[in-house]
Please model this.
Amino acid sequence: MIKLEDRPSVIILSIITFIAVFYAFMFLTEGAATAFMERTGGPAPNEGTLFFMGSVGYIYLGIAIANVMAMMAPASQSMVFFRAMVIITFIAALRAIGNAIIADEILTYAPLIATILVYVGYAVVMSRNKARLGTHFGWL
Model:
């Protein structure tokens, strides 16, 4: 069923998928989103904030589904996905670092560390599957 033949890449994508599903369900339910906001020291979320958090939860759920689809396709067909995810997660990591720098008080560094680890994970998967620019899969 899994057509991606590189075992370490499958393990990394599975871990990233687990993290994405965890964050998705944490943001999709109202109780978990409220608890998350209280744990980070923010005020109780209003309806607009809960809607925004739910939207972010669906994005995480989409990432998890895309990871599963990338594992079920050969590496040559997932190359564009891996490249796009490296760029997107790099921008997200820079944004998380910037937010951590300007924050007055940080209660937990877990989201920052998770964002950086996801970027490193996608970069490793992209390298292992020879999806970097200048490499190809032998069909050119």
